[in-house]
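[Solved] Which block belongs to which protein?

Original post:
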Amino acid sequence: MAQDEVLTTTEAVKYLKTSRQTIINLVKAGRLKGSKIGRNYRFLKEDLDKLIRGETEELKAASR
Protein backbone atom coordinates (compact mmCIF):
# COMPACT_ATOMS: atom_id res chain seq x y z
CA MET A 1 0.00 0.00 0.00
CA ALA A 2 1.27 3.43 -0.91
CA GLN A 3 1.69 6.02 1.85
CA ASP A 4 -0.54 8.52 0.03
CA GLU A 5 -3.38 6.02 -0.29
CA VAL A 6 -6.84 7.42 0.43
CA LEU A 7 -9.19 5.31 2.57
CA THR A 8 -12.92 5.52 3.15
CA THR A 9 -14.35 5.48 6.66
CA THR A 10 -15.15 1.77 6.29
CA GLU A 11 -11.58 1.04 5.20
CA ALA A 12 -10.19 3.15 8.07
CA VAL A 13 -12.38 1.21 10.53
CA LYS A 14 -10.97 -2.08 9.24
CA TYR A 15 -7.40 -0.78 9.18
CA LEU A 16 -7.54 0.52 12.77
CA LYS A 17 -9.75 -2.37 13.95
CA THR A 18 -12.11 0.03 15.68
CA SER A 19 -15.68 1.26 15.29
CA ARG A 20 -17.08 3.79 12.85
CA GLN A 21 -18.15 6.00 15.78
CA THR A 22 -14.60 5.99 17.18
CA ILE A 23 -13.25 7.21 13.83
CA ILE A 24 -15.84 10.00 13.71
CA ASN A 25 -15.10 10.94 17.34
CA LEU A 26 -11.36 11.15 16.57
CA VAL A 27 -12.06 13.48 13.65
CA LYS A 28 -14.38 15.70 15.71
CA ALA A 29 -11.81 15.84 18.54
CA GLY A 30 -9.12 16.94 16.09
CA ARG A 31 -6.99 13.86 16.70
CA LEU A 32 -7.41 12.49 13.15
CA LYS A 33 -7.37 14.45 9.92
CA GLY A 34 -10.21 13.65 7.58
CA SER A 35 -11.63 15.32 4.50
CA LYS A 36 -15.38 15.33 4.13
CA ILE A 37 -16.50 14.71 0.57
CA GLY A 38 -20.27 14.99 0.41
CA ARG A 39 -21.55 13.07 3.43
CA ASN A 40 -18.50 10.82 3.67
CA TYR A 41 -15.01 11.20 5.08
CA ARG A 42 -11.74 10.23 3.38
CA PHE A 43 -8.48 9.63 5.21
CA LEU A 44 -4.86 9.41 4.19
CA LYS A 45 -3.32 6.12 5.28
CA GLU A 46 -0.30 8.12 6.39
CA ASP A 47 -2.49 10.04 8.89
CA LEU A 48 -3.87 6.77 10.28
CA ASP A 49 -0.32 5.49 10.71
CA LYS A 50 0.63 8.71 12.54
CA LEU A 51 -2.33 8.24 14.86
CA ILE A 52 -1.20 4.70 15.65
CA ARG A 53 2.34 5.89 16.36
CA GLY A 54 1.08 8.82 18.45
CA GLU A 55 2.68 11.37 16.15
CA THR A 56 -0.20 13.83 15.89
CA GLU A 57 0.23 17.19 17.62
CA GLU A 58 -3.12 16.83 19.42
CA LEU A 59 -2.09 13.49 20.90
CA LYS A 60 1.23 14.88 22.11
CA ALA A 61 -0.49 17.86 23.74
CA ALA A 62 -3.09 15.62 25.42
CA SER A 63 -0.45 13.35 26.95
CA ARG A 64 1.35 16.22 28.75
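(Second protein starts here: sequence line, then its C-alpha coordinates.)
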Amino acid sequence: MSPEKRDHVRRRLRGERERAWIGAPLARIAFVAVAVSLIATWTTLAHQAGASGRHLATHRSTPAAAKAATGTCVNSFDPSCGAFHWDPKPDANQSMTTSVSPASVSGFAGENVSFDAAAVDPDAVIACHWVLFGDEEVALIPPVMLRHQYGRWTPPAKQRGEFHLTYAHTYSKPGTYHVQFGARSGNGCESNYNPYGEESVATATVTIAAS
Protein backbone atom coordinates (compact mmCIF):
# COMPACT_ATOMS: atom_id res chain seq x y z
CA MET A 1 0.00 0.00 0.00
CA SER A 2 1.35 3.38 -0.97
CA PRO A 3 2.02 6.05 1.66
CA GLU A 4 -0.86 8.12 0.31
CA LYS A 5 -3.38 5.28 0.76
CA ARG A 6 -2.12 4.54 4.30
CA ASP A 7 -2.62 8.20 5.25
CA HIS A 8 -6.10 8.13 3.76
CA VAL A 9 -7.06 5.01 5.75
CA ARG A 10 -5.64 6.49 8.96
CA ARG A 11 -7.63 9.72 8.48
CA ARG A 12 -10.79 7.75 7.78
CA LEU A 13 -10.41 5.57 10.92
CA ARG A 14 -9.64 8.64 13.02
CA GLY A 15 -12.80 10.35 11.73
CA GLU A 16 -14.97 7.33 12.50
CA ARG A 17 -13.53 7.13 16.04
CA GLU A 18 -14.20 10.82 16.57
CA ARG A 19 -17.78 10.51 15.32
CA ALA A 20 -18.29 7.45 17.52
CA TRP A 21 -16.84 9.31 20.53
CA ILE A 22 -19.13 12.27 19.90
CA GLY A 23 -22.25 10.24 18.96
CA ALA A 24 -22.15 7.72 21.81
CA PRO A 25 -22.80 10.25 24.60
CA LEU A 26 -25.58 11.82 22.56
CA ALA A 27 -27.17 8.40 22.08
CA ARG A 28 -26.81 7.66 25.79
CA ILE A 29 -28.37 11.00 26.64
CA ALA A 30 -31.25 10.36 24.25
CA PHE A 31 -31.79 6.88 25.74
CA VAL A 32 -31.82 8.27 29.27
CA ALA A 33 -34.32 10.96 28.25
CA VAL A 34 -36.63 8.39 26.70
CA ALA A 35 -36.36 6.17 29.77
CA VAL A 36 -37.14 9.06 32.11
CA SER A 37 -40.15 9.98 29.97
CA LEU A 38 -41.44 6.40 30.05
CA ILE A 39 -40.98 6.15 33.82
CA ALA A 40 -42.86 9.43 34.30
CA THR A 41 -45.69 8.17 32.09
CA TRP A 42 -45.92 4.86 33.93
CA THR A 43 -45.91 6.64 37.27
CA THR A 44 -48.75 8.93 36.18
CA LEU A 45 -50.82 6.01 34.91
CA ALA A 46 -50.20 4.02 38.08
CA HIS A 47 -51.21 6.99 40.21
CA GLN A 48 -54.40 7.45 38.22
CA ALA A 49 -55.22 3.74 38.46
CA GLY A 50 -54.56 3.77 42.19
CA ALA A 51 -56.76 6.80 42.68
CA SER A 52 -59.50 5.19 40.63
CA GLY A 53 -59.18 1.98 42.65
CA ARG A 54 -59.47 3.85 45.94
CA HIS A 55 -62.51 5.67 44.65
CA LEU A 56 -64.19 2.42 43.64
CA ALA A 57 -63.29 0.80 46.95
CA THR A 58 -64.85 3.69 48.83
CA HIS A 59 -68.14 3.31 46.97
CA ARG A 60 -68.16 -0.48 46.75
CA SER A 61 -71.38 -1.81 48.25
CA THR A 62 -72.57 -5.19 49.46
CA PRO A 63 -75.56 -6.93 47.86
CA ALA A 64 -77.61 -6.07 50.96
CA ALA A 65 -76.68 -2.38 50.70
CA ALA A 66 -77.47 -2.32 46.99
CA LYS A 67 -80.89 -3.90 47.57
CA ALA A 68 -81.56 -1.60 50.50
CA ALA A 69 -80.84 1.39 48.27
CA THR A 70 -83.46 0.21 45.79
CA GLY A 71 -86.00 -0.72 48.45
CA THR A 72 -85.98 -4.45 47.67
CA CYS A 73 -84.59 -5.28 51.12
CA VAL A 74 -87.43 -3.65 53.06
CA ASN A 75 -89.75 -6.18 54.74
CA SER A 76 -87.92 -8.97 52.95
CA PHE A 77 -87.41 -12.72 53.40
CA ASP A 78 -84.28 -12.75 51.22
CA PRO A 79 -81.22 -13.97 53.21
CA SER A 80 -78.94 -11.79 51.07
CA CYS A 81 -80.52 -8.72 52.69
CA GLY A 82 -78.53 -9.35 55.87
CA ALA A 83 -79.53 -9.39 59.50
CA PHE A 84 -83.11 -8.57 60.43
CA HIS A 85 -83.74 -5.29 62.23
CA TRP A 86 -86.61 -2.88 62.84
CA ASP A 87 -86.17 0.61 61.44
CA PRO A 88 -87.49 2.78 62.94
CA LYS A 89 -87.47 1.02 66.29
CA PRO A 90 -91.01 0.03 67.38
CA ASP A 91 -92.56 1.17 70.63
CA ALA A 92 -92.82 -1.19 73.58
CA ASN A 93 -95.41 -3.90 73.06
CA GLN A 94 -98.57 -3.77 75.19
CA SER A 95 -99.51 -7.21 76.42
CA MET A 96 -102.41 -9.15 75.00
CA THR A 97 -104.87 -10.83 77.40
CA THR A 98 -107.24 -13.79 76.98
CA SER A 99 -109.89 -15.14 79.31
CA VAL A 100 -112.46 -17.90 79.65
CA SER A 101 -115.47 -17.41 81.89
CA PRO A 102 -116.62 -18.91 84.02
CA ALA A 103 -113.27 -20.41 84.93
CA SER A 104 -115.04 -23.47 86.31
CA VAL A 105 -118.04 -25.04 84.59
CA SER A 106 -120.22 -27.99 85.57
CA GLY A 107 -122.62 -30.02 83.45
CA PHE A 108 -123.91 -33.43 82.46
CA ALA A 109 -122.80 -35.85 79.81
CA GLY A 110 -124.70 -35.43 76.59
CA GLU A 111 -125.73 -31.84 77.36
CA ASN A 112 -124.28 -28.56 76.11
CA VAL A 113 -121.88 -26.67 78.32
CA SER A 114 -121.33 -22.99 77.51
CA PHE A 115 -118.52 -20.56 78.29
CA ASP A 116 -117.38 -17.19 77.04
CA ALA A 117 -113.95 -16.61 75.51
CA ALA A 118 -112.41 -13.18 75.00
CA ALA A 119 -109.14 -11.69 73.75
CA VAL A 120 -107.92 -8.09 73.84
CA ASP A 121 -104.70 -6.58 72.48
CA PRO A 122 -104.21 -2.81 72.92
CA ASP A 123 -101.91 -2.40 69.90
CA ALA A 124 -102.60 -5.21 67.41
CA VAL A 125 -105.68 -6.78 65.85
CA ILE A 126 -106.73 -10.32 66.79
CA ALA A 127 -105.61 -12.38 63.83
CA CYS A 128 -106.94 -15.80 64.84
CA HIS A 129 -108.17 -17.91 67.74
CA TRP A 130 -108.73 -21.57 68.67
CA VAL A 131 -110.23 -23.78 71.38
CA LEU A 132 -109.17 -27.13 72.77
CA PHE A 133 -112.13 -28.64 74.64
CA GLY A 134 -110.07 -31.24 76.47
CA ASP A 135 -111.84 -34.26 74.97
CA GLU A 136 -109.88 -34.43 71.73
CA GLU A 137 -112.30 -32.05 70.08
CA VAL A 138 -110.73 -28.98 68.55
CA ALA A 139 -112.13 -25.78 67.11
CA LEU A 140 -110.28 -23.54 64.65
CA ILE A 141 -106.65 -24.60 65.10
CA PRO A 142 -104.72 -22.34 62.68
CA PRO A 143 -101.64 -23.44 60.76
CA VAL A 144 -98.36 -21.78 61.71
CA MET A 145 -95.61 -21.26 59.13
CA LEU A 146 -92.97 -18.78 60.16
CA ARG A 147 -90.41 -17.48 57.69
CA HIS A 148 -87.20 -15.77 58.72
CA GLN A 149 -87.10 -12.01 58.31
CA TYR A 150 -84.05 -10.32 56.77
CA GLY A 151 -82.87 -6.77 56.34
CA ARG A 152 -84.83 -3.72 57.37
CA TRP A 153 -88.44 -4.06 58.49
CA THR A 154 -90.76 -1.15 59.18
CA PRO A 155 -93.16 -1.48 62.13
CA PRO A 156 -96.87 -1.33 61.24
CA ALA A 157 -99.24 1.16 62.79
CA LYS A 158 -100.73 0.20 66.14
CA GLN A 159 -104.34 -0.96 66.07
CA ARG A 160 -106.44 -2.18 68.96
CA GLY A 161 -107.89 -5.69 68.62
CA GLU A 162 -110.78 -7.40 70.43
CA PHE A 163 -112.49 -10.76 70.13
CA HIS A 164 -115.44 -12.27 72.04
CA LEU A 165 -117.41 -15.45 71.43
CA THR A 166 -119.62 -17.83 73.42
CA TYR A 167 -118.81 -21.51 72.86
CA ALA A 168 -121.14 -24.44 73.48
CA HIS A 169 -119.82 -27.98 73.61
CA THR A 170 -121.23 -31.39 74.48
CA TYR A 171 -119.15 -33.93 76.40
CA SER A 172 -120.16 -37.52 75.84
CA LYS A 173 -118.55 -38.99 78.98
CA PRO A 174 -118.36 -37.92 82.62
CA GLY A 175 -115.04 -36.54 83.80
CA THR A 176 -112.97 -33.43 84.34
CA TYR A 177 -111.85 -31.58 81.26
CA HIS A 178 -109.44 -28.69 80.80
CA VAL A 179 -110.45 -26.17 78.17
CA GLN A 180 -107.84 -23.99 76.49
CA PHE A 181 -108.71 -20.87 74.56
CA GLY A 182 -105.91 -19.27 72.60
CA ALA A 183 -105.60 -16.25 70.35
CA ARG A 184 -102.87 -14.63 68.31
CA SER A 185 -102.65 -10.95 67.45
CA GLY A 186 -100.74 -9.27 64.66
CA ASN A 187 -101.02 -9.45 60.91
CA GLY A 188 -101.73 -13.14 60.46
CA CYS A 189 -101.86 -16.64 61.90
CA GLU A 190 -99.64 -18.42 59.44
CA SER A 191 -96.92 -15.81 59.81
CA ASN A 192 -96.84 -13.02 62.32
CA TYR A 193 -94.33 -10.26 61.57
CA ASN A 194 -95.78 -7.59 63.79
CA PRO A 195 -93.72 -6.34 66.77
CA TYR A 196 -96.98 -5.66 68.63
CA GLY A 197 -98.47 -9.10 67.97
CA GLU A 198 -98.25 -12.06 70.31
CA GLU A 199 -100.03 -15.18 71.53
CA SER A 200 -102.03 -15.69 74.71
CA VAL A 201 -103.83 -18.71 76.19
CA ALA A 202 -106.49 -18.91 78.91
CA THR A 203 -107.87 -22.04 80.56
CA ALA A 204 -111.01 -23.25 82.29
CA THR A 205 -112.06 -26.46 84.02
CA VAL A 206 -115.19 -28.35 83.00
CA THR A 207 -116.62 -31.01 85.29
CA ILE A 208 -119.08 -33.40 83.67
CA ALA A 209 -121.29 -35.75 85.65
CA ALA A 210 -123.27 -38.73 84.43
CA SER A 211 -126.72 -37.79 83.23
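Accepted answer:
You had them paired correctly. Confirming on the second one: The helical segments are 3-59, 63-70.
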